[in-house]
């Protein structure tokens, strides 16, 4: 009988010892409650609790995690409707606060990010939105980090992944960009023509046979123009007296020279 009682006691002691041991993985932490009230936080490694009285209510990671926010509709300051999404890098630094201060931490964070993201986009004009992405990221980081501190969270980084305006806005942007390129090209071409005319004027002034040089250049242009007309599918025959044209232009230049004296 004594042996039976001893065996029972040993069984109870073994069960007590096994039930009191909790091993927490590296990078994690666990919360312990005693009779429904918070008693402490278990660190990584071997820990002991009181069976029956104590219970581990939560074990979670303290490592950095990501929260991917799905595309959300937002409106810029100048009323452009677009879709924007973001990714948040965060971690738990106080598991007690995270568990007891908010019911569903990831859902709460997601709603906070969406609200803040729409607010920041609404402060910026559409044309400035793409160049201001880093500024918006920093603003989001500051706001979210401060707002989630009471939850025992630390927001390390916020990245806006994409900004997708409607197709009609993209088409308008492309047309505006093409018009800008065409305008710059015409300006460059006009500047080149002005420079060519300046150099030609200097060359004519520096030589004693300006009339002959001008006749030669006009003859070159005349031949090149006739060649292009001939190569055209819808070409037409054009009769023009190059001598008359040349003499007229030379007389015009001579008149300008005589009037300036």
Automatic annotation (TrEMBL):
Q: PROSITE patterns, per this entry?
A: BAND_7 (PS01270)
List, alphabetically, the InterPro entries matched: Band-7_stomatin-like, Band_7, Band_7/SPFH_dom_sf, Band_7/stomatin-like_CS, Stomatin_HflK_fam
Q: Which Pfam families match?
A: Band_7
Q: According to its UniProt record, where is this protein mainly located?
A: membrane
Which Gene Ontology molecular function entries are recorded, alphabetically?
Answer: peptidase activity
Q: Which GO terms describe its cellular component?
A: plasma membrane; side of membrane
**Band domain sequence ranges:** 19-177
Q: Which UniProt keywords apply?
A: Hydrolase, Membrane, Protease
GO biological process terms on file: proteolysis
Which subcellular locations apply to this protein? Membrane
Q: Give the record's family classification.
A: Belongs to the band 7/mec-2 family.
Q: What is this protein called?
A: Membrane protease subunit
* Species this protein is from: Phormidesmis priestleyi Ana
């Amino acid at each position: 009988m004594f042996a039976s009682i001893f065996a029972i006691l040993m069984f109870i002691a073994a069960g007590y010892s096994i039930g009191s041991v909790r091993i927490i993985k590296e990078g994690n932490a666990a919360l312990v409650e005693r009779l429904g009230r918070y008693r402490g936080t278990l660190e990584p490694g071997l820990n002991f609790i009181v069976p029956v009285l104590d219970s581990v209510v939560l074990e979670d990671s303290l490592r950095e995690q990501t929260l991917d926010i799905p595309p959300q509709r937002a409106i810029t300051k100048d009323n452009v409707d677009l879709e924007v999404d973001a990714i948040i890098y965060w971690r738990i630094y106080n598991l007690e606060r995270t568990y007891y201060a908010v019911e569903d931490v990831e859902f709460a964070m997601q709603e906070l990010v969406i609200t803040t993201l729409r607010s920041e986009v609404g402060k910026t004009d559409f044309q400035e939105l793409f160049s201001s992405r880093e500024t918006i990221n920093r603003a989001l980081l500051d706001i979210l980090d401060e707002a989630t501190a009471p939850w025992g969270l630390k927001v390390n980084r916020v990245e806006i992944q994409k900004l997708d305006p409607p197709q009609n806005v993209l088409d308008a942007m492309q047309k505006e960009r093409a018009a800008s390129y065409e305008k710059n090209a015409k300006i460059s071409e006009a500047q080149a023509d002005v420079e060519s005319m300046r150099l030609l004027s200097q060359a004519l002034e520096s030589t004693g046979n300006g009339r002959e040089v001008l006749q030669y250049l006009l003859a070159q242009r005349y031949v090149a123009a006739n060649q292009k007309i001939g190569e055209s599918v819808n070409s037409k025959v054009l009769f023009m007296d190059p001598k008359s044209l040349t003499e007229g232009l030379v007389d015009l230049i001579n008149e300008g020279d005589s009037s300036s004296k």
